[in-house]
Design brief:
heterodimer, A: 113 residues, mainly beta, seven-stranded mixed beta sheet, B: 113 residues, six-stranded mixed beta sheet
């Protein structure tokens, strides 16, 4: 595609439910990043993939959060037993290689009620 | 730890005027990159300008320029001839020693007609 695509655009879920957020990066981009942006804050790093492997997952807040990128393209961020504090915009970005410009998607706004 | 501080939560400017957004940062890395991103209501982060720390010359992109003061760890963004379309959140970000971006809390810029 022309840009980074994230689905769904908005997601409302009940506390305790499981959610999956999808990111479709720009074709050919090997690096993929997930960030979380809480209201009134800047984005915070969650995880970085180089190809299929998670090169840095130090930003995942706890073991309820998990992300995969099985074929080195599409990535899914999975959140188990959602809590109200997980409500935020989840941003995905991709880049062609290390130290090149990262292109962001429009994010998924997750609301946990 | 790397930190980015934006001390101006909100700024406003008249159309066609010039405005400067402030950013200070802290890192122990010698080689790093600094960025300004624009985030309109669509939520998509758009790269405005990028500066490599080892380059002394300040980066410029059309109406956007930076004042990079390495010793002071300061990285301000100047927008000349402000346009209504410049209205957005602006985030300063740092990448150093890893692949992840560290963002400030942002400055909300409003351009008034």
């Amino acid at each position: 595609g022309a840009g980074v695509s994230q689905t769904p655009s908005n997601k409302v879920t009940e506390k305790g439910k499981y959610v999956e957020l999808r990111c479709d990066p720009i074709s050919g981009h090997t690096a993929l990043y997930w960030y979380r942006q809480s209201l009134g804050q800047g984005p915070e790093f969650l995880i970085y993939f180089q190809g299929t492997g998670a090169a840095d997952d130090s930003g995942l807040p706890n073991d309820r959060f998990f992300a995969v990128r099985p074929e080195g393209s599409v990535s899914t961020l999975k959140i188990q037993r959602t809590e109200r504090g997980d409500s935020a915009v989840y941003l995905c970005a991709s880049s062609k290689q290390r130290e090149s410009e990262a292109f962001f998607g429009q994010g998924t706004r997750l609301t946990v009620v | 730890a790397q930190t980015v501080t934006q001390s101006q939560p909100e700024m406003s400017v008249q159309e066609a005027e010039t405005v400067t957004l402030s950013c200070t940062y802290d890192t122990s890395e010698n080689n790093y990159y600094l960025f300004w991103y624009k985030q309109p209501p669509s939520r998509q982060m758009i790269l405005v300008i990028r500066q490599e720390a080892y380059k002394q010359q300040n980066a410029t992109e059309n109406r956007f320029s930076v004042n990079f003061q390495k010793a002071a760890k300061s990285f301000s963004l100047k927008i000349s001839d402000s346009q209504l379309g410049d209205t957005a959140m602006y985030f300063c970000a740092l990448e150093g020693g890893s692949e992840k971006l560290v963002f400030g809390k942002g400055t909300k810029l409003t351009v008034n007609p």
